[in-house]
Amino acid sequence: MQANRYNNPDKVYISVKAIFYPEGGFEPTSFIWEDGHEYEISKVIDIRRAASLKAGGVGIRYTCKVHNKEVYMFLEEDRWFMERKNNN
Amino acid sequence: MDRIILHSDLNNFYASVECLHRTEIRNKPVAVCGDPEARHGIVLAKNYPAKATGIQTGEVIWQAKQKCPDLIVIPPNFPLYLRFSRLARSIYASYTDQVEPFGLDEAWLDVTGNRHIHGDGLKIANEIRERIKFEMGVTASIGVSFNKIYAKLGSDMKKPDATTVISRDNFKQVVWPLPAGDLLYVGRATKRKLARYDINTIGDIAAASMKFLKSVLGKWGEVLWSFANGYDNSPVIRMNEETLIKSVGNSITTPRDLETSEDVQIIFYVLSESVAARLREHGFKCRTVQIHIRDKTLFTFSLQGKFHKPTNLSGDLADKAISLFRANYSWPNAIRSMGLRGCDLVAADSDEQLSLFDDEKQRIKQEQLEMTVDALRTRFGHFSVQRALLLKDPEIGAINPKEDHVIHPVSFFKEGNIL
Q: Which residue in chain A is spatially nearest to B402 when comparing CA positions?
């Protein structure tokens, strides 16, 4: 049985590029936002399980440094998502 | 020394998981309900705004909507709930290997051996609650006590997202004033019976004499008396310690009422194929088959029959079930739901007395045939191979109970417990 999927405007699914190390494990190096723009990840600061109340999902949360800002990227099963920033 | 038992209960589990994923409905009244088309249209779970309108679990959808016209009704998403249930268990597993699930949303944990590492029960419970909130985005209520029964009562006392400790010092003040119906296994009937003797609270049960309760309720009287007094000492089962399977069964509420013997026959074949496949999967044969019938007035009865030799063939199960049914049902009413269960299990590879009078070769052939069907279904899907009979009525023939029903009800009294 397949799980139903939910559409949430604040949940942005992204493409992620990563390096897989020969000794095992991997690290995301960049991601592509929905507008097609690619952002480089300069550093992964923290990795832990976490829920995203804003985007509505749970997974492994990567805290990454991008353009000197900290952003969260969530690996939920086999998809990555990010939370949309609202300007209000 | 006393054990430290935790009972963790994920608050409004299905509804909470839905509300986490659908931000737009979080603050509105929401109920997760079964499919009314398939006649499972009852409330399975609701969130707090829905609860505030008086909606209760088990109510049919129209009743709930009467209480709350803007209720948002959503269908269940079981694979997602299973995923969340596994996430919770993996959190529990980092504190103890004694984790005993009770349904998808509840579990007992014995953390006695952990007190020197993570601290006392209260501290561990609070840590677990924080992790569930942070890692899963839902909340849990946890009861901490020295036995499983009180721990469960504790998890019901403060909701949501709270810890309740019931210790030897406070249980008489905390547990005993609670209504008798709060105690595990005091249902409506037992509650009524007890009320006749002016036994209305858990304290009343504890104060009654065991002999008296036994005379009123049979062996359950003894069990409830020991529950009420905090004497329950059943262990929290270790993870992966496979509980001994005593029977394998399936039941189904059909999409429409069954009117004829042929309908019933189709459903018996559907059920017996699922039961037989699961018996084979677990390496069992059964010596007894039990059937369970509920008619549209909700009158329910069950019957059982013995095989003269153990079997896990769907044909055997179905034939026995159908003959039991034919001999005992005269169709006073159409039928709403049916169940079939294989019990009295023996290992499938145990030695067998061959018979001079049966065609043993034919039997072996039949067994191989059914195993081949299992293999085909694993590779190509359940409906790749079917009995022709089931095609006669696609509506009720196209049910796949083996895969559709991922959640089986559980009992507190598993192997290794009391009784």
A: A1
Q: Does one domain contain both B342 and B386?
A: yes
CB contact under 8 A, A4 and B77: yes
Residue of A2, A58, A78 to mutate, interface with B, max B Cβ within 10 Å? A58
- Give catalytic residue positions of B: 106
Question: Is A10 touching B (CB cutoff 8 A)?
Answer: yes
**What mean pLDDT is predicted for residues B99-112?**
92
Q: Are residues B144 and B216 in the same domain?
A: no
Phi, psi angle pair for B309, to nearest 5°: -145, 150
Please list, in sequence order, all residues whose beta carbon lies within 8 angstroms of the beta carbon of residue A19, skipping any fewer than 6 positions away.
A26, A27, A29
Would you say the ipTM is above 0.85? yes
Domain that holds residue B184: 176-229
How far is A60 from chain B, CA to nearest CA, in Å?
9
Query: How close B134 comes to chain A (CA, Å)?
Result: 6
- Cα–chain center distance at B76: 16
The answer to whether position B312 is within a domain reads: yes
| Residue B202 in domain | yes
Cβ–Cβ < 8 Å for B170, B153:
no
Binned at pLDDT 50, 70 and 90, residue B111 comes out as very high
Size of interface A-B (CB pairs under 8 A): 52
Q: What is the pLDDT of residues A30-86, one digit of tens each?
A: 999 999 999 999 999 999 999 999 999 999 999 999 999 999 999 999 999 999 987
Tell how strand B30-33 and strand B72-74 pair up.
Answer: parallel
